[in-house]
From TrEMBL:
Protein's UniProt name: Queuine tRNA-ribosyltransferase catalytic subunit 1
Assembly: Heterodimer of a catalytic subunit and an accessory subunit.
Top-level EC class as recorded in UniProt: transferase
The organism of origin for this protein: Penicillium patulum (Penicillium griseofulvum)
Gene3D superfamilies the UniProt entry points to: Queuine tRNA-ribosyltransferase-like
Stretches for region RNA binding: 251-257, 275-279
Highest rank taxon of the organism: Eukaryota
Upper lineage: Eukaryota, Fungi, Dikarya, Ascomycota, Pezizomycotina
InterPro entries to which the protein is assigned, alphabetical: TGT, TGT-like_sf, tRNA_ribo_trans-like
Length: 404
């Protein structure tokens, strides 16, 4: 099918399956691997778009289901799409609404026609079909649009339902492709389903790859499954997926999950966690997370993270705010600006981490990056390294427990 992207491959790790590439989209080029902040309702909670630009973000997410409810398709058509509505001149990716089958399960009924929801706002009915999802995304004008898929929680014991959802997702992709009006300016990504059944995942990969969409997503994960199972699914899929297309693992946002999934061959990630955890007073740092609402920070006059170049941590003589952990402790539980400032820091941290990952791949030093990453989080104590990460990385040639 026509494509509105080009995908330049620059380097591949000589040990793992990690890749460094550039994704050229209608609203600018995106360095891969990338983490995409989530602006569900055309707004990133806690940040203005100028502040998001300052982090270097080139691609963030909106949600089709929510924008379809409010402001609605008529408003999106009248204003000329979501870029204009929200004042964002860089790239957008829209989820199709399929995830809401899980998150709003009590409000949804799935049939071959589509998904019938009761609005969480006013209880009014809404039918989301593959055709309606694509029509909404055409109106939104996002640079990457996702097929509507049939999403089942990975923890479901109903194997027949998981297979049905996989088969239906393939059929729905065909309907999405047929409905898509602007393939020359919007890129439709397929979504691999199949639960934790690796044979179903392989089968789905083959079906989806045959449709030749511009990019490919691995969906249905981050639903409470064991991390070992998550890694097996990603590893299995990337072994099959073509090298010349971007690979997006949906809903993944913890730093440990990302660095391992990159080693397994994935390129793109998204999650609300970095922004949500900021609203609880948690800062993401190289040693893990800091709960800055804890009284132990009341007299800590260092930056949130030493060496961080976000505007919060950067000293005043370098154009930053020079804020301390003590100040963040003082405002985090009391003032909304605390969540705002921590959101800036957390998004900056995630994008900076992705830049370091990319550079390590370009330098063919990704195994060394992984060893330092896990050493920093666990204070050099290898006995604390998570078994799932050790096992997954050992499978692609990196032994975290070996002497350096």
């Amino acid at each position: 099918m026509p494509s509105a992207l080009t995908f330049d491959r620059h380097a591949k790790c000589s040990t793992t399956k990690a890749r460094a590439s550039t994704l050229h989209l209608p609203h600018g080029s995106v360095p891969l691997p990338i983490f995409m902040p989530v602006a569900t309702q055309a707004s990133l909670k806690g940040l203005t778009y100028d502040q998001l630009r300052e982090t270097g973000c080139m691609l963030c997410l909106n949600n089709t289901y929510h924008l379809g409810l409010k402001p609605g398709q008529a408003v999106l058509d009248a204003v000329g799409g979501a870029h204009k509505l929200q004042g964002w001149d860089r790239n957008l990716l829209t989820d199709s609404g399929g995830f809401q089958m899980v998150s709003l399960l009590q409000l949804a009924t799935v049939t071959e026609e589509g998904v019938r929801f009761l609005s969480p706002h006013d209880g009014s009915p809404m039918l989301l079909t593959p055709e309606h999802s694509i029509s909404l995304q055409n109106s939104i004008g996002s640079d990457i649009i996702m097929q509507l898929d049939d999403v089942i929680a990975t923890t479901s014991p109903d194997h027949a339902r998981i297979k049905e959802a996989m088969d239906r997702s393939v059929r729905w992709l065909d309907r999405c492709i047929e409905e898509h009006k602007y393939p020359e300016r919007q890129n439709l990504f397929c979504i691999i389903q199949g639960g934790l059944d690796l044979e179903l995942r392989k089968q789905c990969c083959e079906e989806m790859v045959a449709r030749d969409t511009p990019g490919i997503a691995i969906g249905g994960l981050s639903g409470g499954e064991a991390k070992e199972e998550f890694c097996k699914v990603v590893d299995t899929c990337t072994d099959i997926l073509p090298e010349h297309k971007p690979r997006y693992v949906m809903g993944v946002g913890y730093p440990e999950d990302i660095v391992v999934a990159v080693a397994l061959g994935a390129d793109m990630f998204d999650c609300v966690w970095p922004t949500r955890t900021a609203r609880f007073g948690d800062a993401i740092v190289s040693s893990g997370t800091l709960k800055l609402s804890h009284k132990s920070f009341a007299n800590d006059f260092g930056p949130v993270e030493e060496g961080c170049t976000c505007i919060c941590c950067r000293p005043t003589d370098q154009g930053g705010l020079g804020l301390t952990r003590a100040y963040m402790y003082h405002i985090t539980a009391k003032e909304t600006v605390g969540a705002h400032l921590l959101t800036i820091h957390n998004v900056h941290y995630m994008l900076t981490m992705m830049g370091k990952i990319r550079q390590a791949i370009l330098d063919d030093q990704y195994p060394a990056f992984l060893r330092k990453f896990f050493s920093d989080i666990y204070g050099g104590d290898k006995s604390k390294y998570p078994e799932w990460a050790v096992g997954a990385l050992r499978g692609v040639g990196v032994d975290l427990l070996a002497d350096s």
